[in-house]
Amino acid sequence: MLRGFYTAASGMIAQQRRQEALSNNIANANTPGYKADQPTLRAFPELLIQQMGAKSIPTTKGLNLPTQNPLGSLNTGVYVQETVPNYAQGDIRETGISTDVALINGELPDETGSLFFTVQNEAGEQRYTRNGNFTVDGQGFLVTNQGYYVLDQAGNPIQTNGMDFDVTDNGVIQIGGQTAPLGIAYAANADELEKEGNGLFNGEAGAVPAGATFNVKQGFLERSNVDALQAMTQMMESYRSFETNQRVLKAYDESMSKAVNEIGRLG
Questions:
Q1: Where in or outside the cell is it found (predicted)?
Q2: Contact between 149 and 120 (Cβ < 8 Å)
Q3: Over the range 185-195, which residues count as b (16 or more CB within 10 Å of their CB) and which as e?
Q4: Which of 71, 72, 131, 64 has the alpha carbon at shortest distance from 102?
C-alpha cells in the first residue's frame, strides 16, 4: 500500500512541474525569440518482483530447497528528468523599427544546431540569444532591452551612435562609412545550452561553420515559437492527470486510515 502511495505522489509532483513549464511557455508566448520548454517525463527504474519459497524434498532428513518464482516487474512512479528548449524557428513579423533584427536559420550542418546573437551580460560574460529586440543606450551602444551589450565578431560592443544604421542580409552593420559584423555564433548541439533567463543561453558555441547559411532582416523580429493553443491543451491534459493521481492518493489515504482506526480496534 505504501508503495502505491508514493507512486501516486510522484505522479502528482511530475505533473505539477510540467504545469509550471507550460505556464511559463504561455506567459512568454509574445516574447521575441523565446524558445518553448519541453519537459520530459521518465519512469523510475523498474523492480523485478519474485516470490520466495521453499520446496520440500522427501528424504530421511527432510530437506527444504529455497525457490524463487518471478512475478513480474513493478514501476515505482515517474519524474521530470529534464526540460529541453525547442529551438525551432519562430515566425518572423515586421516591426519597421531599425534596431529590431531577426536572425533566420538557413541550411545548417547539424540537425541539432542553431544560430544565436552574441551578447554580454552584466558580469561581462558572453551569452547567446535569439531575441533581436535591440535598442541603443545613452552612450550610443547597441544593447538588448535588458541593457546587455550586443557584440560584434571580435567580441566587442557595437557603437552605433544612434538608430540611423543599416544591417545587411549577412549581418553586417553599416554606420556611415564604417562596418561592424554582428557576432553571430553557432551551437552544433543547442540542446546542451542552458537557459539563464531574460532570453539568454549559456554554453558552448563558436563561429559559423562553412556551409551554414542564414539571413538577417532589419526591421523584423522572430516571434516566440510557443503554440499557445497546443500549450493550453497540454495544460488541460496535465491537470487531468494530476487530478487522477490525487484521487488515487486519497483512496490510499482512506484505506490506510481504516487499517489504523478500524482493523486495529478489532484486535
A1: Bacterial flagellum basal body
A2: yes
A3: bbbbebeebee
A4: 131
Nearest to 186 by CA among 103, 250, 80: 103
**pLDDT at residue 74 above 80?**
no
Residue-wise DSSP of 198-214: TTEEES--BPPPTT--E
- CA 23, CA 212: separation in Å to the nearest integer? 34
Average pLDDT, stretch 192-217? 92
β-pair partners for 67: 53
Of all helices (H) and strands (E), which one includes residue 234? helix 228-258
State the Cα–Cα distance between residues 160 and 143, nearest whole angstrom. Answer: 10
Burial of 167 (0-12, 13-18, 19+ CB in 10 A): buried
Cell digits for 238?
A: 496535465
Q: Which residue type occupies 153?
A: Q
Q: Kindly report the three-state secondary structure assignment for every residue of 45-66.
A: CCEEEEEEEEEEECCCCCEEEE
Extract the C-alpha cell encoding 179. Answer: 562596418
pTM: 0.79
Residues 96-104 have a mean pLDDT of: 94
* CA nearest neighbour of 48 among 8, 77, 76: 76
Query: Contact at 8 Å (CB) between 38 and 83?
Result: yes
Secondary structure class of 173 (helix, strand, coil) = strand
Taking the C-alpha atoms of 68, 69, 73 and 76 in order, what is their torsion angle to the nearest 10 degrees? -50
pLDDT over threshold 70, residue 265: no
107-150 pLDDT, tens per residue? 998 888 999 999 999 999 999 999 999 999 999 999 999 999 99
Q: What is the mean pLDDT of residues 145-162?
A: 93
Contact 212, 188 (CB under 8 A): no
